[in-house]
Structure formats: C-alpha cells, structure tokens
Target: UPF0758 protein Q0A17_15550
Amino acid sequence: MDTAESLMPREKMLQSGIGSLSDVELLALFLRTGTPGKDVMTLAKEMLCHFGSLYGLLTADFIQFRSLSGVGIAKYAQLKGIAELARRYYNVRMMEENSLLSPEMTREFLQSQLMEEEREIFLVIFLDAQHRVITHSRLFAGTLSHVEVHPREIIREAIKLNASAVILAHNHPSGCAEPSKADKLITERVVKCCQFMDIRVLDHLVIGRGEYVSFAERGWI
Model:
C-alpha cells in the first residue's frame, strides 16, 4: 500500500484531504504539468525555492517570474488566476455567509483584498448590531506611503447603511505592518467621531506583506 509521502498530489488529496498537501504538492496540483526535462514536482520545488514562499510566488510580477528558465506566460497566468480566485472567494464569502466575523476571517479577508495593492487603500467594513457584515467599502486611496482619511465620510456612510459598528483597515505597500504615528492619530480621530454617533470601532488592522497588526489585539482600541 502506498504511503501518503509516495503519492502524487491528486491521489494524496483524494486519500487524505486537501489540507494534507505540502506547499510544493499544492502548487504542483495547480501547475498540472512541468516543463521540458522537468517534472511538475521538481518545477514546483524550484519555484518555491526561487521566490521563498507561496506568498512571494503569487505576488511576483511577470518580469520577476520569467527569470525562471523555461517558465512563461501560461504558468504566470495560472498563478495570477489562483491569487485572484482566492481574493474573490473571500469577497463572496464575506457577503454571502452573513455570519458573525471572527478575527481570523476578518484578517484573511483583509489580506486577500489589500496585500497586493501598490498604494495605500483605506477600507471600512460596516456591521449591524449583531456584528454581521452589511458591506465593505474602499473609501480612500492614496500614494505609496500615505492615504488621507476623512472621519466624516466614514460616519456618513455608516449612517446611510444603518451600521452599528465598523472595522477599519489599510495596507502598507512597503510590506511592514507596524502602524505609524499618523495611523494611530487618525484611528483616535475616527473612534472619537464614531462615539458621538454611537457607532463602535471594533478594530483597525494594518496589512503588510505576509504580516498584519491589529489595534484591538494590542489594546489600542
């Protein structure tokens, strides 16, 4: 009888479930085929080694990607499609499940929406009194290192949606998620403005590349 380690990714998935696959095996499952003189498992290992992680691979641009010998636009399109499919999945899941947000689900959703942005985006999730998602909105867009946020616009949108609570989020395209002094100041302003309208700010998450910071987890909200 074959052990799990000796099985090809598809057979291993059928026997032990998708969660049993390593990063290399999961990547090989999506790639399906190798390149001339290189089987798909070898190709998957080389790609992960070259980019350092699945994150590094899925966020690479085409110039970085084609530095791999024998790999072209078809494989690049496959992997970009995977990343976009994941982003859309979290988007739909957020709206269709209509469930209470967990910290993990919130973080995963925000990372899927903001992690690859090349400029700062300020996104707000609007919730009802039971903390179920009403909608989310990219209210402000900025530059590589700054986004101007207007608390009154957040309040106006929350009132229009009859929201009882909000979760704030923005990304740092530099990759480092550590909040700046400006991030802390604008969070304080938004919290104070929301308090006047009896709207709770549950958290503010800063999304970096493969990392995040939660104001709530740090006790800042």
DSSP finds nine helices and five strands in the chain. The beta strands are 121-127, 133-141, 165-171, 200-207, 212-214.
